[in-house]
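From the pipeline queue, job 12 of 40. The input is one protein chain; the requested action is below.

Action: predict structure.
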Amino acid sequence: MTKMIRIATLDNVAVALAPVEQGEIVVLDGITYVAAEKIEQGHKMAIVPIKEGEAVVKYGFPIGNAKQDISVGEWVHVHNVKTGLSEESSYTYDAKVEPLEAITPETFNGFMRADGRAAIRNEIWIIPTVGCVNGVAEKLTKDNGHLVQGNIEGLYAFPHPFGCSQMGDDHAQTRKLLAALANHPNAGGVLVLGLGCENNTMEGFKEELGTWDDNRMKFLVCQDVEDEFEEAGKLLGELAEYVDTFSRQPIPVSKLVIGMKCGGSDGLSGITANPTVGAFSDKLIARGGTTVLTEVPEMFGAEGMLMNRCINEEVFDKAVHMIDGFKEYFTSHNQVVYENPSPGNKKGGITTLEDKSLGCVQKGGTAPIVEVIAYGDQITKTGLHMLSGPGNDLVSSTAMTAAGAHMVLFTTGRGTPFGSPAPTMKISTNNDLFAKKNNWIDFNTGMITEGDTIDETAERLLEFVIDIANGTKTKTEENGYREISIFKDGVVL
């Protein structure tokens, strides 16, 4: 087994694919190195002398600058490297748009909705307009579990703490996000549940929805009725009759929309799992499908690699606006834009935000970026999208679901159990995690460190995504993990 990898020819560090002991001899590209100290899996070792102030290069790009002279064989990490990022950046469009060669799409067995969209699940969702009715929504799912039969695959409520005591943009974002979730195709039927005195009024919510199908969507304001459980039970029964009319049928995979996210990343994320998801994304887009990237703060330091793939200058300008907007968000709260990576990331071998970002954007593959969409907006085009959203795992996964993602692919080096409203597939970067947390992890890319190629692993991932779209449950679904989280910025009254 090759114990270390030099990712790009310009790199002056190599990454350990397995732990390397102090004094151990490693042969890399025909050159013999001796580890000056122990190098843990995912961590970096200098393969040329790096002078104080010089760039540390990984993925062919600088990931920071040396705080001191670093000798060949030394461990390269937070103790001797610092970020090279600052709040100030300017961008110029240098188009590198290379369309993918089209491939005839396979089919999956899904559900076709009346509006022409596809779905991979046929569920009933309860969307509270305000946190005050969370308990009612959750009790309704328990009391009406008998409705889950025939073609109906689940009944779920999505509690949250907002919908009242919010002002301005926060209030608008909450309403917009919840309305987008209510429009999700995996929900064959939706009960929108309000209280009656909240800021997020039912009238305002309906206005945000615009149009809806009365068969698919029902509304209940709890203060308007004597017994909310009795009235909601009747409405859920009507929804169940409608949802049960849908059955699975062959649908081209070009109809799939897949979200792509990473969290609990380690030093192998940008070598195994994220490039595999990127290759998968290219394969799906070549078949006419759609993928979406978010977690904007984890693009900092690598955003140019994505922005130059925008299909035109208009989309590029939207990307610049999105990146600059998040930087301003940080600085307006007196926070530095590079306050990242997390302690877990560092333990896994990620040193700086540039290091994390360059690994993170590998999920975007090579396809052109067709659109940049705002938080709470819904996808209307096919191809690769950038979505404005924070790095927080549940907030960004909720936003991708609201945008229309049928499924979220979530790569991780350390593991995490959460699930978003859409099926959330966990993809491990390393073999140890897959073996240890098999109750969390659906798919393993760790075998790439032992010789499997990224392309063949991505082919297996494509097959597995189709399997999940056919109805096979993810581990998060088996465990019953489904949550939402809404992005907020302003005051709570």
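Job complete. The chain has a mean pLDDT of 95.
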